[in-house]
Amino acid sequence: MKRKVQQSRRAGLVAFTVLTAGLSVALSAVPPASAQGMAVLPGTGGVAQAAASQAQAAAAAVLCNAPWFRSGSHVQMEGDGVMPMSIRMTLRDVVRSPSGCRAQLEVNSKSALSALMGPPVITNQVHEVVIERGAPEAQTSIESQHAVINARARYARMYGEAAFRGKGVFNYAGLDLREGTTLEGETFESSVSLKVYPLGADEAVSTMDAQRATIHIGSRHVGKRQLIDTLMGRKECQPISYEKRTSLGQLMIGGELVQAEPTVMHVTDWYCPADAFVLRTEVRQGDKVQRVDVTALERDTQAP
């Protein structure tokens, strides 16, 4: 029994590392969209209506007005390298307000550490996301509380909750993206609380808590727009490069404190304005390079 508990803890720690990395990619790699003005309704008072509509659009979170931000839209991403992963994100129940929007975000992923040569960690997450921008000059904020996490590794399964929040995370839209421009850095905070179960058992053998995990994005440097071959065809895209530092903070496993070293990555987002999306992300960590490509970006044109 002790051996099984140790296997479950070890597998749980590996799965937790993969889960955190997958969540980081899924949430921080969802790129900002280009600004889309809100339509002016026909009828009397056209000038006043137009002014009111433009003011509302300026105050609202730009991401909410992106062409792909619709119920039923989904994104498929595939990653190679030391942590191969497949991530599918789906939006549901999108509701807009004058200052932003809210939506249900489903994240389904398979990810693994290639050095372990084991089966992937399969993770399902459901987030109720609130996105707001109270004023035109304000940064967009994004928050999710009490997200449900289900994960399955080789020897264990995990169930629990996660939360995240940040400002300016979806902030390419509306910014000056001329070559040579430098964008400000950003900070993204998250927490995860999980119970670990051996496969086929209903009694938890351990817990995992990281209450102050952070992702810090340094200043981002905008490069020259150019044509590149993406998995969705040849696109005109713009490289945006920055340093990304991820820390789990105090990681508690079964009541024991585990010190996890922060990871530092050098990232280049290839932002493609015509698609209002980052279609490729290149991540370099030490001498290892990983690429995450968008393979599908589909939206429901009939949904609100």
Structural class: mainly beta
The number of helical elements comes to: 2
Low-confidence stretches: 22-60
What is the strand tally? 17
Q: How big is the Rg?
A: 20 Å
Share of residues in helices: 10-25%
| Tertiary shape | globular
**N- and C-termini, Cα separation:** 52 Å
Q: Can you list the strand order of the major beta sheet?
A: 1-2-3-4-5-6-8-9-12-15-16-17
Order of helices and strands: HHEEEEEEEEEEEEEEEEE
Overall structural domain count: 1
Concise synopsis of the structure shown:
This protein has two helices and 17 strands. It has 304 residues and is mainly beta. It has a twelve-stranded antiparallel beta barrel.
Name its key features.
single chain; 304 residues; mainly beta; 12-stranded antiparallel beta barrel; 17 strands; globular
